[in-house]
Design a protein that fits this description.
Oligomer: single chain
Largest sheet: 2 strands, antiparallel
Structural class: mainly alpha
Number of strands: 2
Order of helices and strands: HHHHEEHH
Strand content: under 5%
Shape: flat
C-alpha cells in the first residue's frame, strides 16, 4: 500500500473533530451531571471516557510493533466509574487522545505498509485507523447525546442550532 500524507492529515483532522466535540461536551457538564445515567445498565459520560481511554492506550501504545489489545488492559474495569472529579475525567480524556495523536505521528512512508494486529488479527494501517475512528466517533456521539439530554434547554449547540440553517447558509454563501 502506498503511503499517503493526505490520508494521515485527513484522519488526524477527523480524530481531532471528534475530540473537539467531546471537549465541548465535557466543558458544559459538571461532575455531578457527567455521572447521570438513564438506567443502571447504561453508561455515564465518565464510563465512556474511561473505556475510550483504556481502548486508546491499548490500541495506540507501540501501535506498529505490538498487538493493539494489550495484556495489561483491564477492559471490564473500564465500565466501572472510578473517577472522583471532573479533573480526573478530563485528564484521562486528554491522555487517551495524546497517545493516539503521538502514534499517528510515527506513521511515515517507510512504515506505512506495516501490518498491525488488533486482537491477533492483521490490519493494514488504513484499516486499523478507520476501525478506531469509527469506534471513537460512536462513543463521542454517545457523549454528545448524553450531554444534550442532561443539559436540556441549557445545552449550547455544537453545530448549527435548530431553526438557524438559513441564517448560517446566508453567512456562509453571502446571500
Amino acid at each position: 500500500m502506498e503511503f499517503s500524507n493526505h490520508f494521515l492529515e485527513s484522519v488526524k483532522f477527523e480524530f481531532n473533530r471528534y475530540k473537539v466535540l467531546g471537549d465541548a461536551c465535557l466543558k458544559q457538564l459538571s461532575y455531578h451531571e457527567m455521572n447521570w445515567k438513564a438506567s443502571e445498565s447504561d453508561n455515564s459520560v465518565p464510563i465512556i471516557v474511561k473505556h475510550m481511554n483504556g481502548n486508546m492506550l491499548s490500541r495506540w501504545t507501540n501501535f506498529l510493533i505490538e498487538d493493539g489489545e494489550k495484556n495489561w488492559r483491564q477492559r471490564e474495569q473500564e465500565f466501572e466509574n472510578s473517577y472522583q472529579s471532573k479533573g480526573e475525567i478530563i485528564t484521562a480524556w486528554e491522555e487517551g487522545w495524546e497517545c493516539l495523536f503521538d502514534a499517528l505521528d510515527t506513521i511515515h512512508s517507510n512504515n506505512f505498509g506495516t501490518q498491525v494486529k488488533i486482537r491477533n488479527e492483521n490490519h493494514s494501517i488504513t484499516e486499523a485507523v478507520h476501525r478506531q475512528l469509527a469506534h471513537y466517533a460512536s462513543h463521542v456521539g454517545q457523549i454528545v447525546l448524553l450531554a444534550k439530554m442532561i443539559k436540556g434547554p441549557q445545552w449550547k449547540s455544537l453545530s448549527i442550532p435548530k431553526g438557524k440553517s438559513e441564517a448560517f447558509n446566508r453567512k456562509m454563501f453571502g446571500s
